[in-house]
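Researcher: Structure for this, please.
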Amino acid sequence: MTLEELAIPLRTLRLLAVDFPGLPAPDVDVSPLYPERLRLSFHDTSYESLAAFEQWRTALRIAPDAVDARTQSDARTRVLAAEGSFVGAVIVLTAYADLPAADRVPTGGAR
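Model: Predicted structure, token format:
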């Protein structure tokens, strides 16, 4: 695979930088395994990453009901995930934030 074959997500990233310069900077992932996909992720021990996720979700007009909310790492980490599209690329948004101990549900528990 050549860099040219990653043109869709790379051009999309360039347009996102121009169209949304004031949004929080994400971790960016482009992979030859998924040449039409641009992954934007947010990692933080506070809830700032979830707020950044919401800002991007709103800007990209991804519907709130398209968001998958779950926990991982034995219910210590909140994860938000959603997919949308922007100028021909599939955008995958993901956010991770530590859950305060008071908000954790033991593995196998229900909320």
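Researcher: Any notable elements?
Model: The chain has one domain: 3-17+25-103. The first strand starts at residue 27 and ends at 31.
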